Amino acid sequence: MKSELSWDIIKRFSGNDQDCFSYQDVSLEYPDKNRAQLSKILSGMVEKGMLVKLNRNLYHIVPTSADADVYMPDWHLVAKYLMKGKEYYVGYYSAMQIHGLITQPSLREIVVTNLQIKPSTKNIRGVKFQFVYHIKTRFFGYKNTWINQHEKVMVSDIEKTIVDAVSRPHLCGGLTEIGKAIYETRTKVDLQKLFDYFTNNEIQVAKKRYLFLTDLLGLKWTSYHEGMLRNVGSGFPLLDTTGPDQGRKDSRFGLKINVDTATIKDSIFA
Q1: Quick one: which of 70, 92, 259, 264 could link to 243 by a disulfide (CB 3.0–4.6 Å)?
Q2: Domains by residue range for the chain, with CATH
Q3: Predicted TM-score (pTM) of this structure
């Protein structure tokens, strides 16, 4: 009986974006079944390798062709499943990966949300899911984006990905990775949208880092850039938050240059 019900659950929730489901979903499908019994059956299905448990009362079907011991659904889809019913977007380094802007893989999925989720990190089968809180005024610039031929998730657009990256370089692999991303998107980015995003973002150091990299990489410098440079504020924050708190002060951009900028250029032009 238990075995029959287990396979019936698999059949009912396979396909049609239902490979991931909750305990509540199962309860609604089988209203005549005892809830404690259903919970026990789901736990047994996890033990048998039929399901992966993603979160409390959240499960994903393991394909019959997969190795149940190591199977992990697409990380971006897992982020979507974890945030069902909540506002979110895949951001920072993870968004750079979706946009094809990085070459180095990461064992971390970064999910931006307007909710303070605790704990802010969750490990699922060796993958770290990090939930980054943005206040309402900085939670924008994302859309439903294809991650493969069949599925979409919420992802920051290219312009917001750049703004987020220079706001928190440590969440994007540092200035070298960010410099490459800015260079790779130089003909794709909508400058008007980008500068509007910087205005809405209200993080002065983000503007400084973007302008510094634009100049360093010899990219097109417009009146928009010049205007923003005149309004970046005072102080000398770090160019790269992944580097040490030391270095020369650049008075033009108002930054403490704490990394070897030649490395950034070499990663692109060498």
Answers
A1: 259
A2: 2-61 (1.10.10.10), 74-156 (no CATH), 173-270 (no CATH)
A3: 0.93
